[in-house]
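Hallway conversation turned thread

IA: we were arguing at lunch whether anyone had actually written out Biopolymer transporter Tol end to end. Turns out nobody had. So, for the record, here is the sequence (312 residues) and right after it the structure tokens. Reply here if something looks off.
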Amino acid sequence: MTIPSTHHDGLKSPRWPGRQCLQPGQIAQLRVIDVETREETVLLESDMLIESPNWTPDGEWIIVNAKGRLYRLPADGSGMLERIPIDNVPWVNNDHVLSPDGKRIYFSAEGHLYVAPVTGGDARKVSNDHPEIQEYSYWLHGISPDEKTLAYVSTEPEGSDPHGRRNLGTIPAHGGPDFQMTDGVNDFDGPEYSRDGQWIYYNSEEAATCDGHAQIFRRRPDGSERQQLTFDDRINWFPHFAPDGSKFVYISYEPGLLSHPADTMVELRMMDAEGGEPETVTTLFGGQGTINTNTWAPDGRRFAFIAYPSAL
């Protein structure tokens, strides 16, 4: 556990800080790609580490996280980043999703789940305390189409690893009892609901023959009917559905890597919802923070992502 330090703005660093800044000479680029023409547009370049774009359902804004806070940018690239004033929470990480109507944003902060108005205001905690488990943590990834349920990854210590035991879970969006979907034997991450709410798609090593070899799977929300959807030697993470539910995009790492690291060559791939042959949409230098949560535009033709090239 890292002892929190206090920044000049009074915001404390996270207990699990991860990457908090870019490398010397590196920039963050918020890009949008048209999946039909493959034309890419750079909406923003920044020397600040920005992560995980969410496109608002009205198409007007793209929301990212940076320095433990949430920001928004006009989706046409005009204007500057504006901080969303949500101040009664600790360090916000790169797991945040929007309600289907775009009025609320749900996010992870210091191991808990919160909800706040998308325009800013007080946040409310919706996750549970687990005093019986030291360092139990929630990591948000999905929201059901009716906004009744959130899908998350829970982590708890196992051996010397503070996050060694991982499970998929769901919880009522307004707060309530947790439902554990999996048994914690394998690594799980990135749970996201299909657009009809009938499946939860996720990445896991449950079929891996070596450490780190995550593939895309789906299960029913009750944890049943596990199905594997990708079957290659690459490391596949974070499936995100297009608005019409017909396809999803995911991030694909080169073979041999562990987890979902930053600063490496990755592909953003697209696949039909029922599986099939994946299609590479673009290749970039990125990884962690590129598409941790759903990034699709409401028109279903574009999605946003973050690349982290060198500015030199």
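OS: looked through it. The domain at 28-307 is CATH 2.120.10.30 (Neuraminidase).
IA: good, adding that to the notes. The radius of gyration is 18 Å.
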